Amino acid sequence: MVTFVDHVTLHLKAGDGGNGCVSVRREKFKPLAGPDGGNGGHGGDIVLVSDAQTTTLLGFHRHPHVSSANGGPGMGDNRSGGNADELVLTVPVGTVVKDADGELLADFTEPGMRFLAAEGGHGGLGNAALATTKRKAPGFALLGTEGWQGDLLLELKTVADVALVGFPSAGKSSLVAALSAAKPKIADYPFTTLHPNLGVVQAGSVRYTVADVPGLIEGASEGKGLGLEFLRHVERCSALLHVLDCATLEPGRDPLSDLDVILGELGAYPVPDGQLPLLERPQLIALNKIDVPEARELADFVKPELEERGYRVFEISTASHEGLRPLSFALAELVEKARVEAASQPAPSRIVLRPKAVDEAGFTIKVEGGSHGNVYRILGAKPERWVQQTDFTNDEAVGFLADRLAKLGVEDRLFAVGAVAGSTVVIGAGNGIVFDWEPTLTSTAELVTSPRGSDPRLDPIRRRTTGQRREEYHDLMDAKSEARAELVRERDAGLWADDESDGDGENA
After folding, report:
1. pLDDT tens across 445-465, in order?
2. What is the DSSP letter of 103?
3. Is 171 annotated as ligand-binding?
4. N or C: which end of the chain has fewer CB within 10 A?
């Protein structure tokens, strides 16, 4: 069974970046020839591309979870990890992309448009790339960052010039098949059309597209029937064609009452801001099935009243093709007029590129109250990415992070907002990474000589104070005095003498 889907939630996970490598080159007679750890590869992006050959979002409905490949890790001998290929997802023309909050992100109105839906993570630098003249042998590398992960909402809004609206079984699909080369499903029961059908019509020198919108019923704008699911496909059409069934056998129905119901539903449907309301767009009426004698009589009866309302009315038969040629040219006239009006509209405003100010910090600090004092939250692309790249099991890597934050101006800004030593600092939104801020940790990591992979600035302070030196000195002097006094007591007791002689009276 063919299924049509025009509204899906896509769960995306872009690839993570590969970790950098810590490696030292070893050659004969050169056991430590310098760092040679390679960089990690970037994770794969997920890109949405509009394609004219794609007509439904069914593939995403069946497989809503999409992820791209991760970047390769760095290796020794200056070998960098491979970058993952981007993952391209094709969507139909007319697809609208929104975030989880409903904010519009992209609108695919033409084939070939691209949108970066999920950005892959950055690869971490290896220790070879981190080496400097002052830090010649880094004992750490940067980790790869995580790729973007989240949900996107995809809505398909058919891009057509003319929308055919009407009750179920009014003959809309048959009209599309008669006007164009399209072959929609046609049957003798209501709601045969379960998805919009597009057809291309050539009327003289004008070529336009028509969309068969599934049947509307009373209450469609409130969600009854299939109305809410498919009224969105009418939004982009420049003209409407009301297809009225003149041969219906249902009691209480006639072309005039059907038209009133459809107009009520179209008027109740809210269009996006900036678009023309549906009832203010050009509209034509087609009285269908006049090949049936009773239907022709009814069409002749209601046509004058419809014309009094200001509509152009055409009596047609999709079975015998009667009246289709004048209708096609009338629709072409409306489409051509709409295209001319669209071309005469003022050009869109220019895109203004505003360069970043030279004094822009690139991060913000928010002071949040807590039960144990203020919490200082640091938000910004660079600090948050640097935290993700830091291996907190490596002291040298933590010191490198402290230096990067200090050079960015985080320490000065923390002082400015009132932070003191020992204040709680969080980097990133949500839980983030929590630190007990110590300003002395952020100074001259490149000048520190220490074993690879360690940072003496993170060790406890072992240097003696002046009072401790004075106390140790006094204890030492007291011990020496006590030792001299003990020697004097032993000499006075005869336990030893200054000059010991042997039995000959000579000095030993």
Report:
1. 444 455 666 665 556 556 677
2. -
3. yes
4. N
19 is in an annotated binding site: no
- 173: helix, strand or coil: helix
Is 383 marked as a binding-site residue?
no
Is position 97 annotated in a ligand binding site?
no
CB count within 10 Å of CB 307 equals 12
**170 in a labelled binding site:** yes
CA atoms of 91 and 25, how far apart (whole Å): 49
Q: How many domains does the chain have?
A: 4
pLDDT tens, 393-440? Answer: 888 888 888 888 888 888 888 888 888 888 888 888 877 788 888 775
Question: What range does the domain containing 2 cover?
Answer: 1-156
Quick one: what percent of the chain has pLDDT higher than 70? 80
| 456 appears as a binding residue in the annotation | no
Whether the predicted model's global pTM rises above the 0.85 cut: no
Instruction: Tell me: is residue 317 an annotated ligand-binding position.
Output: yes
pLDDT at 357: 65
Q: Which of 221-230, 257-266, 311-320, 372-381 has the lowest mean pLDDT?
A: 221-230
In this predicted model, what pLDDT tens digit does every residue of 298-343 receive, in sequence order? 889 989 999 998 899 999 888 888 889 999 999 999 889 888 887 7
Q: Is 166 annotated for ligand binding?
A: yes
> Which neighbouring-strand residues pair with 208?
201
Any idea what the CATH number is for the domain that residue 269 is in? 3.40.50.300
What token pair was written down for 264? Answer: 């009520």
What would the 3-class secondary structure string for 28-42 be? CCECCCCECCCCCCC
Binding residue per annotation — 288? yes
Task: Measure the CA–CA gap between 393 and 452, rounded to whole angstroms.
Answer: 13
Whether residue 167 is annotated as binding a ligand: the answer is yes
318 is in an annotated binding site: yes
Alpha-carbon distance of 417 to 424, in angstroms, equals: 13
- Annotated ligand binding at 291? The verdict is yes
| 172 among annotated binding-site residues | yes
Please, what sign has the CA dihedral across residues 112, 113, 119, 125? positive
Checking if the pLDDT of 490 tops 90, the result is no
* The token pair that represents 21 in the structure block: 């490598």
- The answer to whether 183 is a known ligand-binding residue is no
In this structure, the answer to whether residues 150 and 182 fall within a common structural domain is no
| 212 annotated to a ligand binding site | yes
Query: Is 424 within 8 Å of 373 (Cβ atoms)?
Result: yes
